[in-house]
Amino acid sequence: MKIVIRILLSLVVLIIVLVAAVFAMRFYNTQKWGFDGDMEDVNDLSIYPEVFEGGTVEHFEHGAANGFHFIPDDPNDAEPIAVFGGSEGSPNTDTAEFLAENGYEVYAMFFFGADNQVDELNRVPLEFFGDFLEYADLAGTDITLLGASKGAELGLVLTNYYDEINNLILYTPSSYIFMGLSFEGDMASSWTYDGEELPYIDLSQSDFGAFARTMFDFAVLNPVKYRETYESAVEMNDNSEAARIDTGSFDGQALLIAGGDDAMWQGDVMAKQIGEDLGDNAQVEIFEDAGHLFLGPTALAGMMMGGTEEANVQAGEDSDRMVLEFLEENAVN
């Protein structure tokens, strides 16, 4: 009996020590990373600009298309640019404003979460892009598409359905279609066309060790590194080839930009894969010391982005220059 009691007491002490260790790590990581859980509501239209230096901004909504039209007072003679953000759901208006200040007409768009769209990044109907072309009267007109992260995945997918996409600029892109992100646990493809889900990589079919490390990071409030999960899911899914994004329909020029220390997913590897598929039509630029975002922070919203602050900022400045050079060469009439 005494032995049993000692064992139980030892287990209680062990549990107390483990709980204390978890709370200590949570406190440490909160102080280190400063995550407060508050994120800007990207669907609040009041946070977006109505003017920029050298032009105006108009909100538009048509069918399932929703976004902002950046109109320069003195526009370049160039094809218009469609811009997407990533899985945070923003229309990437900072990039749109940068381009518009350099004379380009830009449409910055939501692809989920807006009033006339699906609520989550899950089973997003690609036909919203056709609604955009109809609204902007751009059907049959060459356009450049710029996407970042999940928006880059979307951009490459759209080339299989809309011939209007003449040039691509993809930041930390994906060469695969990955599963959608649903807080309701509805596991499905990110994208649909004509009511049918496109083949996708299921992230639940990934390495258990990667899953366990992710859960541990969640528990102790350490920024989560998702890259290993994405990499192992590509290796472990039986339909990886079916989920690979076809590039055969795209015959324009592409600028593919990624960080070599991307902690979110293997954006550098996938940029090179896309570049190999497109051959001479692709320019691939890898910033070896940069992470997923070229903004500075190495972690954001509880997720590890990678890189160093200095390398990320430098990659942002250098990639801005590359984008303008690419547009001058390929998008200006």
Task: Describe the fold and architecture.
The chain has 333 residues and is α/β, with parallel strands linked by helices. The protein has two domains: 1-36; 46-330, Alpha/Beta hydrolase fold, catalytic domain (Rossmann fold). Helices cover 36% and strands 19% of the residues. The chain has helices at residues 2-33, 93-101, 128-136, 150-158, 208-220, 227-236, 240-243, 267-278, 309-330, and strands at residues 51-52, 55-62, 65-72, 81-84, 106-109, 124-125, 143-148, 165-171, 191-193, 196-197, 253-259, 282-287, 299-300, 303-304. The strands form three sheets. It has a nine-stranded mixed sheet with strand order 1-2-3-5-4-7-8-11-12, sandwiched between helices. The longest helix is centred in the N-terminal third of the chain and has 32 residues, at 2-33. The chain is globular, with a radius of gyration of 22 Å. The relative contact order is 0.11. Mean pLDDT is 89; it is low at 17-31. This is BAAT / Acyl-CoA thioester hydrolase C terminal. Residues 126-297 form the BAAT/Acyl-CoA thioester hydrolase C-terminal domain.
